Amino acid sequence: MKKVAFLFDMDGVIIDSNPFHKIALKQFCKKYGHDLSEEQLRERIYGRTNKDWITNIFGEQAPDQLKKYADEKEQLFRDLYEKDIKPVDGLEKFLKKLDEYGIDRAIATSAPIENVDFTLAKTGLRSYFDTILDESFVSKGKPDPEIYRKTAAALGYKTEDCIVIEDSLSGVKSGKAAGCRVLGISTTHSEEELSDTDKVVGDFTGLDPRSLIAELFAAKQRI
Fold first, then answer.
1. Active-site residue 79, yes or no?
2. Which among 11, 16, 134, 161 is annotated as catalytic?
3. Structural domain boundaries of the chain?
4. Which of 4, 20, 49, 64 sits in a 20 to 30 Å window from 40, CA-based?
5. In tens digits, what is the pLDDT along the chain, a chain of 223 residues?
6. Is 11 noted as a catalytic residue in this protein?
7. Fold of the 5-16+86-222 domain
8. Long-range contacts: 150-156, Cβ < 8 Å, 24+?
9. Does the global pTM surpass 0.70?
């Protein structure tokens, strides 16, 4: 089997958190006079770092004000989601198969470390991930490919030997620009919206890593 690494986005991939991020975002932004549209959420916020989306909506901010806004919004999200958080269906079985097959993996997320710690603690999945890159590791957020290039390098892989798992349009663009295969998961966007990916699934139920590797790399070679 070809040696391949899986690079997991977090929100919408490890947890189906975007419905709660959406509530938190709309509440937070409305508090400060911004009533977000669905288009703004899709095109200017989902999948992006706090620095990027806050600047997109609020304009340039001083660093201390930017951090204040980000901390407030993320605490609101964690408070809203705490009682409902769970892994995406089939994920833990998929991760156990990665362990069984000796397949490397990492988390590459636009989220702050506080949300990563919250997610892994509440889902009990921390033991599956030794390598984690959060928003603090990059100067350019998704759709820039920096996060996936750095995560692949942290695992010791070329990007062309990695499969990115993404739910957001900006994340898909990031993975593609990095030169990775991209598996879309339709928690946040429809299958049609994720048409630029190499394959789309609804969740991880019944998904086998070795079969997925064979399918995606065979498909790439035929093009």
1. no
2. 11
3. 5-16+86-222, 18-81
4. 64
5. 789 999 999 999 999 998 999 999 999 999 999 988 888 887 788 878 888 899 988 999 999 999 999 999 999 999 999 999 999 999 999 999 999 999 999 999 989 999 999 999 999 999 999 999 999 999 998 999 999 999 999 999 999 999 999 999 999 999 999 999 999 999 999 999 999 999 999 999 999 999 999 999 985 554 4
6. yes
7. Rossmann fold (3.40.50)
8. 150/108, 151/7, 151/106, 151/107, 151/108, 152/5, 152/7, 152/178, 152/180, 154/106, 155/5, 155/104, 155/106, 155/131
9. yes
